[in-house]
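ok posting inputs for the pyridoxal-5'-phosphate job
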Amino acid sequence: MTHPIPKPGILDIAPYVGGRHQVHGVANPIKLSSNESALGASPKAIEAYREVAGKFDVYPEGSAKILREAIAEHFGLDEDRIVCGNGSDELLTMLANSYLRPGDEVMFSEHGFLVYKIAALANSATPVVVPEKNRKADVDGMLACVTPKTRLVYLANPNNPTGSYLPYDEVKRLHAGLPPNALLVIDAAYAEYVRKNDYEAGIELVSTSSNVVMTRTFSKIYGLAGLRVGWAYCPAHVADVLNRVRGPFNVSVPAQRAAAAALRDRAHMDANFAHNDKWRDWLITEIRKLGFAVDDSVANFILIHFGKQKGKTALDADAFLAARGLILRGVAAYGLPDALRLTIGPADANRAVVEALAELARQ
Ligand SMILES: *Cc1c(COP(=O)(O)O)cnc(C)c1O
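and the output
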């Protein structure tokens, strides 16, 4: 050996590639590739951030108490069972770091979030990828893959990049079929966008069991992706574990302040929700009219399908839109080479996407 070698699995990781920011030769492209908020952060969150500007010499309060209090109040939860993270990605990773031993199995569905696979491989665990049915997690298929080595099950609900969701009955059925020593992690990054009678983000299941964790984020509807704040609601014994392994000051002062303020600005949240609901339906309808297949979605993005016809493939469409300053997300890395994911954007951006796709369809 000529240099130190990382743990088995790490060199099998394909580095995560985020949504593009720039297009060569286009001055101010519109980024619709990372599911960021269409309306941006709450002005109250920005104000809270500004209040602490200039006071960057003091460490944050390590447990993010002011933020946990705000979350507990907003959702009616026990603040001692909330753990905050540097984005929910950090919590998803900490859970893997805490519970996986080499050779353990980590289950997730076919078009699941890429972070799950990275977290598994980084801990020398084995990813078990379960095929989906019509781009929806298949509970029977997942239950059929349970073995004595199953340690962690990640379920994004709603899922990214498909936009589909599992009703609460199905999530409960999945949980009921898991052994008690396997942890079910419900990644509810898009929960705030869903208002369906049969949907439950995970709070109830966490409250009534000892092997379920729900993760949430301030990156999406709250518009704080750049600040990196997420949280997990856990059984007390899991919160205890996470509090031992997390970085002692993992959520910065401005992030704690801005997130707590964002949570208290219900009007901004409601405006975001209403904007998303209206424009998502409009985009799905208009894009279908142009002849493209679009999946139903409960999140702040939609999945558009392209065919194999030369000049009109997903890759061609991506280039065509990018040249017009519209950045979508190719999802080949998620096993969907013929689709593009479009984040619901501001009104003008949404109209521009439909106009560009109409032009592409006419070609
Ligand atoms: C965006 C997203 C997250 C949030 O990640 P953060 O680290 O909180 O920004 C988590 N899970 C899924 C499926 C996502 O799409």
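notes: The chain has a mean pLDDT of 96. The chain has two domains: 10-31+267-362, 43-265.
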